[in-house]
Automatic annotation (TrEMBL):
Residues that span the membrane, as ranges: none
Protein name: AAA family ATPase
Lineage: superkingdom: Bacteria
Occurrences of domain AAA+ ATPase (ranges): 221-600
One Pfam family named in its UniProt record: AAA_5
InterPro entries: AAA+_ATPase, ATPase_dyneun-rel_AAA, Methyl-DNA_Rec/Restrict_Enz, P-loop_NTPase
């Protein structure tokens, strides 16, 4: 008995219910095996391919073939020369190849687990059947699956099995749209069966192909680190060097070089910085609803609405998740020699023109509205000819000049936009939702409604339906015109090229590291800011790790996980709040590195000022620790920039002494003790920093009855401070 005949018997034991289904699967495996050499595979048969890498390279080849077919290529004819629906069939063949791998591994056709039975049943009865019939979508009612499999009200199990990534990988479908109540018998899952479908999940999938089957390897563990210590110990100063290390960059010894490298990574959007404060919220940090209109999309607005906007954490997490590292070679997309244009294509989902954008992504075109006139004739390479025709044949109301939209935008779209140029598709005036490369000349294809009849062929390189902020790639928000060229000096070339290359199937390099710096992390309400996502910060629960988790966000409804190549670096001032009082959930998920004052750092400043600054700092901190605690010491950073005695006086007068007064709640005797000015008597004091005089009791108070009261004051600026007593042995 041949291996494929045994496979058919195996399928008949539960993996395929019909003879036709078993025959189709077996024939598909026979065709793949017969064409291994033409597919570029160095294997004699499927057994050898399985032993080599568990079909990883072969499944990657099928995915590349789907990508080629989506772009109009004929690569699929190696396996299916007569097919008219290669995308759907290739998706099914990918699922069957995974199934054949289970057969070769000796696994049972259907395990005894309900979840596996559910996935297998829906795959065969809904997904594969729908694809073969040419359907664009299929809907699965939870009650029907429960009844067909004879389960006992297993609504939650069915929902979890169908909504999870395991079924998406098995069936090669994007995440489904869920309708109705959550985890009930009436829940409906709507699956998009087209690799280039137009539903939001499928649109995203059409650009961001999965990177191939998991190999069992996990990504390097991410770093969650908090630098903590008293004020002025250089915590924020140290984050620049630490961020460079986490990004895998060399750390120069020269501070100016460190900051130059740090600013370069900030400009590349690999490092983001945020300061926590008491008013910071989940909506600002993760995602929230913000008021917006359609202004900026090349059409009149539809009025005020609330739109979900990602916060700083979700934005950098998305950049890290999409990143595949620097792409080099002939497949890399570079901006060199290209123009970049902003373009509006319809409006956002849920508005009247949203279907135009969906069609653009699905079909691989960009569309322009304005006058429904064929501009294909050679004479329209002149803007003057376009103007003349708009004036004589145009149907839009109002006077027509060379600056009118129907003239200016048409000329830009037809004549100024060149093949190989890049278009950035707007979502409102502050977000981008797609980026593509123009690969075709102007075409006129009339539409029934007389709108959006002008098109150019586009290879879409990146898509995010939620949109990302414009400022990640451009220095300012978009403006109203439908299409215009972006200024080269306003582009963040590195960030834009990263987006352009992030979804290329050929990009196999290691993802780059990203760092989010959270300054003063203990000053915010952690549970309020992170919400349920505090769990996702744990290194082993990051995407790509053994215990990876995702959660559904409350505003967008998206499933969200934190990528492993995103490191989080925080700073914490222990004088603001003791580390013992820090949120326990945060403490458990972060490592802590103490940064205490380093008097030795002040050797150079001491030489320039003529004062023994290291000893000065040691003396004050020893007394603060005695009178208060070690977490309220004074950091060396207060004095590092001092180059003269006058500079030291200014630091003591305007920073150190006010800080001492705050620490001791205006108990000036303790401040004087720290400064070496306190004396053990009840009379006046003239210290090196502070003076004290005894206040006279008001009339009516007997001296013997009145409490001792003193007036403390700083020595005058003209007089200056005397450091002798503070530095004395």
């Amino acid at each position: 008995m041949s291996k494929l005949e045994a496979y058919k018997i195996w399928l008949g034991q539960g993996a395929a219910q019909t003879e036709a289904g078993r025959t189709t699967r077996s024939q598909a495996m026979r065709v793949i095996e017969r064409n291994l050499a033409e597919l570029g595979m160095p294997y004699q048969d499927l057994d050898a391919a399985w032993q080599a890498d568990r079909f990883a390279s072969l499944r990657d080849r099928l995915k590349a073939m789907r990508q080629n077919a989506r772009q109009g290529g004929q690569d699929y004819r190696i396996l299916m020369p007569e097919s008219t629906k290669p995308l759907n069939r290739l998706s099914n063949w990918g699922s069957w190849l995974a199934q054949y791998g289970r057969f070769l591994a000796g696994e049972p056709p259907v395990s005894g687990k309900d979840a596996d039975r559910i996935r297998q049943y829906v795959l065969e009865q809904y997904i594969e059947t729908g694809r073969e019939a040419g359907h664009s979508h299929t809907e699965v009612l939870v009650r029907d699956v429960n009844d067909a499999l004879g389960l006992n009200q297993a609504w939650p199990n069915i929902c979890q099995a169908l909504a999870g990534p395991k079924f998406q990988e098995l069936a090669q479908v994007p995440a489904p749209e869920q309708k109705g109540a959550d985890q009930s018998s009436a829940t409906v899952f709507r699956f998009d069966l087209r690799s280039d479908g137009v539903s939001p999940p499928a649109l995203e999938a059409s650009i961001t192909e999965q990177r191939g089957p998991a190999t069992g390897n996990t990504s390097p563990l991410p770093v969650n680190l908090i630098l903590y210590g008293p004020p002025g110990t250089g915590k924020t100063y140290a984050t620049a060097a630490e961020a460079l290390r986490l990004c895998g960059e060399p750390v120069p010894e020269d501070r100016a070089a460190v900051m130059a490298a740090y600013q370069r990574l900030v400009s590349e959007e690999r490092i983001a910085f945020v300061t926590f404060h008491q008013s910071l919220s989940y909506e600002e940090f993760i995602e929230g609803r913000q008021p917006t209109t359609d202004a900026g999309d090349g059409a009149e607005g539809t009025g005020f609405r609330l739109e979900t906007k990602p916060g700083i954490f979700r934005r950098i997490a998305k950049r890290a998740q999409d990143n595949r590292g620097p792409v080099h070679g002939e497949n890399a997309v570079s901006l060199a020699g290209r123009q970049v244009f902003k373009m509006s294509i319809g409006r956002a989902h849920g508005t009247v023109d949203s279907d135009v954008f969906d069609a653009a992504i699905k079909d691989g075109y960009t569309y322009l509205d304005w006058e429904d006139i064929d501009w294909s004739a050679d004479k329209y390479s002149s803007a003057a000819a376009i103007l003349e025709t708009c004036q004589s044949e145009g149907k839009l109301e109002g006077p027509v000049t060379s600056q009118s939209g129907q003239v200016l935008h048409t000329d830009t779209f037809r004549n100024r936009l060149s093949i190989n140029d890049i278009i950035v598709v707007s979502k409102g005036n502050s977000l981008i939702r797609a980026i593509g490369e123009v690969i075709g000349d102007y075409e006129y294809v009339p539409r029934p409604d007389g709108r959006f009849s002008h098109r150019r062929k586009v290879r879409w390189l990146w898509l995010n339906l939620d949109g990302v902020p414009v400022h990640e790639i451009y220095h300012t928000n978009f403006i109203q015109p439908t299409i215009y060229r972006l200024r080269q000096d306003g582009l963040n070339v590195t960030a834009l090229e990263r987006y352009l290359n992030s979804s290329l199937p050929e990009a196999k390099t290691d993802p780059q590291a990203f760092v989010l710096i959270i300054d003063e992390i203990n000053r915010a309400n952690i549970s309020k800011v992170f919400g349920e996502l505090i769990t996702l910060l744990e290194p082993d629960k990051r995407l790509g790790q053994a215990n990876a988790l995702t959660l559904q966000l409350p505003y967008s409804g998206d499933h969200f996980g934190v990528p492993s190549n995103l490191h989080i670096l925080g700073t914490m001032n222990t004088a603001d709040r003791s580390i013992a009082l820090l949120d326990t959930a945060l403490r458990r998920r972060f490592s802590f590195r103490e940064m205490m004052p380093k008097p030795s750092v002040l050797a150079q400043a001491a030489a320039e000022t003529g004062l023994n600054l290291p000893l000065l700092l040691e003396r004050m901190n020893a007394r603060i620790e005695y009178l208060y605690d070690r977490e309220h010491q004074i950091g060396h950073a207060y004095f590092t920039s001092c180059t003269s005695r006058r500079d030291v006086d200014a630091v003591m007068r305007h920073k150190v002494i006010p800080l001492l007064a705050e620490y001791f709640f205006e108990d000036w005797a303790k401040s004087a003790a720290v400064l070496g000015d306190l004396e053990p008597h009840e009379g006046p004091i003239k210290g090196g920093f502070l003076t004290r005089e005894r206040l006279k009791a008001p009339p009516g108070f007997e001296e013997s009855d009145a409490a001792l009261r003193y007036r403390w004051a700083l020595r005058g600026e003209d007089e200056g401070f005397d450091y002798e007593r503070l530095l004395a042995p």
